[in-house]
Amino acid sequence: DVKVTQSSRYLVKRTGEKVFLECVQDMDHENMFWYRQDPGLGLRLIYFSYDVKMKEKGDIPEGYSVSREKKERFSLILESASTNQTSMYLCASSLHREADTQYFGPGTRLTVL
Amino acid sequence: AQKITQTQPGMFVQEKEAVTLDCTYDTSDPSYGLFWYKQPSSGEMIFLIYQGSYDQQNATEGRYSLNFQKARKSANLVISASQLGDSAMYFCAMREGNTNAGKSTFGDGTTLTVKP
User: Over the stretch A5-29, which tens digit does the pLDDT of each residue have?
Assistant: First the structure.
């Protein structure tokens, strides 16, 4: 079974703090994704990566950056957290470029005070 | 225009009955894929079923089937013999084309409640 793990289920940070959300997958997947989920807005893609050190902007990249130094790990970085970044963050991975099914982690509920 | 539309914010169904969750999509790409995911209250998104735009038959996975009507651009999820554990949020998603690294667009979701 594919396993996607995220470093925290719940996180509380203060405005202006730098925040790291970590995601690890154990099935040698090429693609990895970061989404945020907000009520009434569904899932919105922040960034994705299709290879080590490769990244592409999704629909809402502003205020975020990402890092993929190793194939299994994809990090989402909030350089200076703001209250409007309070959300549920979901990481996902898929096998390779042409593959379709994404496997999701359990999510991190981030609150920025 | 929204690419994925789920018009039912919430649905109720009696246990053991069938339920249909609606999804319409908008794309001009002849090659695309349609997915349904389930998100229980625990938060984890679970893949349920996939339909490719060139697939001739409707996809089926156990109690889940996808009613694919290409001309109407709809991809409704049918859950037969509902169970209490089916209570969750359900998302329809679409991947356009063969590129974009499998990038998908998600609908806003439908919350399904199964009544005993």
Answer: 999 999 999 999 999 999 999 988 8
